[in-house]
Amino acid sequence: MMKVLGLIGLLVLAGCSTTGDCCGGGSAPSRGVVRHVVLFKFKDGASAEQVKAVEEKFRGLKSRIPEIQELEWGTNVSPEKHAQGFTHCFLLTFKDAAARDAYLPHPAHKEFGASLGPVLDKVLVVDYVSKD
Questions:
Q1: For 5, how many CA atoms within 13 A lie in the half-sphere containing its CB?
Q2: The pTM is what?
Q3: Which of 1, 65, 89, 118 has the most Cβ atoms closer than 10 angstroms to its Cβ?
Q4: Burial status of residue 92 (CB atoms within 10 A of its CB: 0-12, 13-18, 19 or more)
């Protein structure tokens, strides 16, 4: 009996890790609002004009990609000194994972990403499904 219960437990955990619906693993569940957080660290030589152009292009994605429900952004104002050189944060909201998945290969998003090479040092992206 204990072997059967142990096997059932392993199967449940295996299903959990492949669906991402529990245990913190895998891809995001398909239900719920998806937040797409993008942090930029610009190259030292990036001019103020180049940075402003990136800000404007990123903000312009909302009018070009209908899956973006909301887009907000700002620059780091934290006094904690843990930003590791990242100065800009963009937060995009999607109705669900399917909308986010449509955004990723969208030609406007691809075009924007291709334009970042000369000025961007690093990018950090985190997606999460909104909870309480």
A1: 2
A2: 0.77
A3: 65
A4: buried
**Domain extents for the chain?**
1-28, 31-129
Interatomic CA distance for residues 101 and 127, integer angstroms: 11
Tell me the CA end-to-end span of the chain in Å, nearest whole number. Answer: 39
> 50-109, pLDDT tens digit by residue?
999 999 999 999 999 999 999 999 999 999 999 999 999 999 999 999 999 999 999 999
Task: Return d(Cα 86, Cα 18) in angstroms, integer.
Answer: 32
Domain covering 31-129 in this structure, CATH number:
3.30.70.100
Nearest Cα to Cα of residue 129 among 98, 104, 103: 98
